[in-house]
Specification:
Structural class: mainly alpha
Largest sheet: 2 strands, antiparallel
Shape: globular
Order of helices and strands: HHEEHHEHEHHH
Number of helices: 8
Mean pLDDT: 88
Strand order of the largest sheet: 1-2
Distance between the termini: 65 Å
Strand content: 5-15%
Low-confidence stretches: 1-9
């Protein structure tokens, strides 16, 4: 009697397809990030100059974040807060508007006036194109958390680290900072991880354009 098809055989077939899809995602990340970096370099130079004139140095904010599988990496952003913001974090924790281990506040006094504009337009995230090219991040994926916030997540929530963190994610296109529960935020990340496909990435990127341009829910 000939052998019948089994789930093992199906997995054997699916594994190369999944590898090819992830490889394609990486190639797309590099190409799009490089093109965007070149195209947006004049704008990034203007933003850097504005930050320098408005609040001095450093222009680029660097912070350790949890990447894929929890491996730390240095994220790059245009600085939107006072230079001593990290030292003052404990003094503003009472302003947190997010339920869970993460800190989000639209009333954070550490954010500079220019920083509020940059955040609303998501211009502060542009240096992360370098993170994408380096392989720390992807164009689409769960947003990376600071190390202390990542460590405070539950084991289930940390499944969001199964994929590279992204510039944009489901959380941003389905409510962004209007979502005030980290359980809901992490749930959207896990929905992305569990249902990932190149088509889903494309849909998130398209949906992110009006969300970013309108500044909907940005803080």
């Amino acid at each position: 009697m000939p052998p019948t098809a089994t789930g093992t055989g199906d997995c054997t077939v699916e594994a190369p397809k999944r590898y090819l899809a992830h490889a394609t995602k990486r190639v797309v990340d590099i190409l799009v990030a490089m093109i965007a970096l070149v195209a947006l370099s004049p704008l990034m130079a203007l933003v850097a100059l504005a930050v320098r004139l408005a609040s001095g140095r450093p222009v680029i904010f660097r912070q350790e974040r949890a990447g894929r599988r929890g491996v730390p990496f240095t994220i790059y952003k245009f600085r939107t807060m006072a230079a001593d913001a990290e030292e003052r974090k404990a003094h503003v924790e009472h302003l947190n508007e997010m339920c869970g281990p993460v800190f989000k506040s639209g009333r954070d006094p550490r954010v500079t006036p220019l920083g509020r504009v940059l955040r609303r337009l998501s211009l502060d995230e542009l240096p992360q194109l370098v993170n994408v090219i380096r392989g720390d991040m992807s164009l689409v994926g769960p947003r990376p958390l600071p190390l202390d916030e990542a460590r405070a997540c539950t084991p289930e929530q940390r499944r969001r680290e199964a994929m590279r963190p992204g510039l944009v994610c489901l959380w941003q296109v389905r409510g962004r900072s209007q979502i005030t529960s980290f359980d809901e935020w992490a749930g959207l990340d896990l929905e992305y991880v569990d249902n990932w496909s190149l088509w889903l990435d494309f849909k998130v990127l398209v949906a992110a354009i009006p969300a970013v341009l309108s500044g909907r829910g940005a803080r």
